[in-house]
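Recap quiz, item 2
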Amino acid sequence: MTKTLMYGNTAIGEAAIRAGCQCYFGYPITPQNELTEYMATHLSRRKGCAFVQAESEIAAINMVYGASLAGVRVMTSSSSPGISLKQEGISYLAACELPAVIVNMSRGGPGLGSISAAQSDYFQSTRGGGHGDYRTIVLAPSSVQELADLTHRAFDLADKYMIPVILLGDGMLGQMMEPIEFKHEAPRKLPIRERAVRGAKGRPSRIIKTFTSKPTEMEEINWSLFRRYQLIKKNETTFETYMVEDAELIIVAFGASARIAKGAIRNARAEGLKVGMLMPVTLWPFPYEKIKELGRDTKQFLVFEMNMGQMLEDVQLALEGKREISFYGRPGGVIPTPSEVLRVISRLYHQKGLKKAK
Amino acid sequence: MKKVYSRPKSLKKATFHYCPGCGHSIVHRLLCEVFDELKIQDRVIGIPPPGCSVFAYNYLDVDMAESAHGRGAAVATGIKRACPEALPFTYQGDGDIAAIGTAETIHAANRGEKITSIFINNAVYGMTGGQMAPTTLLEQTTTTSPYGRDAALEGYPIKLSEMLALVKGAAYIERVAVNSPANIKKAKKAIKKAFQTQIDDLGYSLVEILSPCPTNWKMSPIESWKWVDEVMSKEYPLGVIKDITGEKDAD
């Protein structure tokens, strides 16, 4: 297969179209505009497809809700402040069991924040984000290739579990160029959506809703969602490990941080420091079990994030206070270098008196 | 014997939960009569709002999906763009369409979305218990304008339909009322025309319906019908506000 040199943001757009995305609704915000522009160029005039630049992120996510009701594959994208606005719609999508792909090329916050890459939307992404008792699947790519691959997977997961899926990237991944290959062609047949509302032709009319005046009915909906979430946890928890077999110290990092940490680990290994990494690919469901298992052989953990320590809490939950966890974070849109992370690793390694390779 | 009146096919056999004298049940019936007459029951998709009429799906025998407060026009846009042969319509109250959903409504109209909005104007927030709406009249007392709406503090009753008439993508806008047999007949005609506008792909259509809410107005049904005539329709004059359907050809 030939490789194409693409920006992260445009790679998501191309991957989405190849995954059968028929509708895109968005609103401009930095640093993800190239994706919106790509969809305007490649989707707006395509037969059977639609692109709308909405009047707000709120309108965009509600258009997504409408298109998903009608049974098509649909996507929106934004960056942190815009994703906050979309939470209302994401809650409705989750409630009504409607699939959709929501891309967050996140940036520094809170507030208007900075337009540089950050990972401070971890809590918002992995804890539902909007009102009510729900989850969304959260995928965390760490390269342009993974942006493309996980975009495709996001559409499949959304349809499989009838759930909104968040692709949590960041401004750095979106703006960087890498050679990638698209492993998927547009599917000839998309899954048929049993509950789509497109007019009651030849069947009884259909109602998509959660509202009820009976709390017990709503409780039943919550239970039904919960059972699905349990299934997703069981089937879809995904992670990657890197040089963990003999590791004295394991770094836990996701997305761009994992990419940076990998560079630092390579150099640490060259100095004889036995460092490895666990990179969650799904942030929800989170690989608690795998981290717990790694904790049997490794005593020291370092969580590294581009925020003030959000995934850190999940690692703490996984290790149940039985292992020592250090944290290194750079919030606000500051992107640390591999050499900076290497210094953190070396200091920690020596402070804790960990064994070097012979 | 000739049958002159029967339950519309599109109206489910369910008893309305609405208060005595409420306009919703009349409008629901009119919608169903129009669906039957235009033979569009299998193409219509209803978007009811949060509020008393969220339960419209218990009565209208068409595909329906709930929407967040104010977002109806955006949801209908998504449906229409994904499924152009469908006929989505939003059913929205004054707070829904003229306060929280103003942006979605104006921009859907401006894009000339081929959707229809049924705008129930009863000058109060009904289900939440009679708070001030954007359409509440000056001096009208509500639970959040207990001293009467004062323009200096609470602003003026908003005229969304007139605002929308300035928007180029809006093809047909009419204000009607459901407070007398004559007005109800006109209301039905307007609803039918609004859906015909959508069927013909002519652009955005909206029917504003002055609709009594005796419970929150603290009036009897008869008094509330009179109030629509004597007070409300002075602020919100009935009639066609915009109609360019004759000037545009169907695509």
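Chain A has a mean pLDDT of 96.
Chain A has two domains: 4-236, 240-351.
End of item.
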